[in-house]
UniProtKB/TrEMBL annotation:
The active site is at S90 (nucleophile), D193 (charge relay system), H223 (charge relay system). Transmembrane segments: none annotated. Pfam families: Hydrolase_4. GO terms for molecular function: carboxylic ester hydrolase activity. The lineage of its organism: Bacteria, Bacillati, Chloroflexota, Ktedonobacteria, Ktedonobacterales. Residues 16-230 form the Serine aminopeptidase S33 domain. It comes from Tengunoibacter tsumagoiensis. It comes from the Bacteria. This is Esterase. InterPro entries: AB_hydrolase_fold, Esterase_lipase, Hydrolase_4, MAG_DAG_Lipase.
Amino acid sequence: MDERSDQRQQKEPVGVLLVHGLNGSLRDMDELAAFLSLNGLYTRLVLLPGHGTHVNDMLAIGWGEWAQAVRDELHQLQEICDHVFLIGHSLGGALCLHLAASEQIAGLITMCAPVHMYPGMLTAIRLTRRFIPMVPTIREDIRDPEARKRHSRDVYRWTPMAPVESMLQYLPMLRAELPLVTAPILIMTALHDHVVPASDGRAIYRMIGSQDKHLVTLDRSYHMIVKDHDREEVFSRTLTFLLRHIIRLQANVLTDNNSEQVKKLY
């Protein structure tokens, strides 16, 4: 299931795939997608399996299903776009990193993506889910009170433990994949994030194989940086990153075309 910000049928030069986080919805990334669309970019939002329906639908879902869903969406977008960028928040960012290790992409942006999480978290969840399969979602990690009120209506009121365990179990393998990622990357992290520690963003920066890499630490927001006080900076940095690399891609195309013209002359 997806939302398309532009319904044109001709092949697009650039597409942007946006992936929300665990226990989220399409609305997590909708404002960013709309902003990018207004700036002329073709965008698509991915709804991860188990989300957007009922929390019980996520009980049997895990990393494998999420990764395959995003991979399928990426391949579909690559059929209609010459180049594709990935943007992911939290779990969505981790999934984008995973795909970038094996797929051809133009670049990626991760926002508060986990690669370690907090010590002992996996053990605690394994013990908890034996007796309690779901726990209440206490609140959204948003510092802006008005944004928190708006956003709190768009998530499950319960958080299932099995999918969280599945994500945490894959993180060691994800860390091993990071050196394989060579696409340009913008890593955004929040200093006061209560869900994913800011140190995870620094770890991605250290371990990633990309030569073109940038780390931004935001200090006015919690976990949901796309909805919080820093959202305008998030939007601006996202667009700047995309446009910079789109210009680079266009320059490469012109160089290749000129080379072909020179070859024809001789």
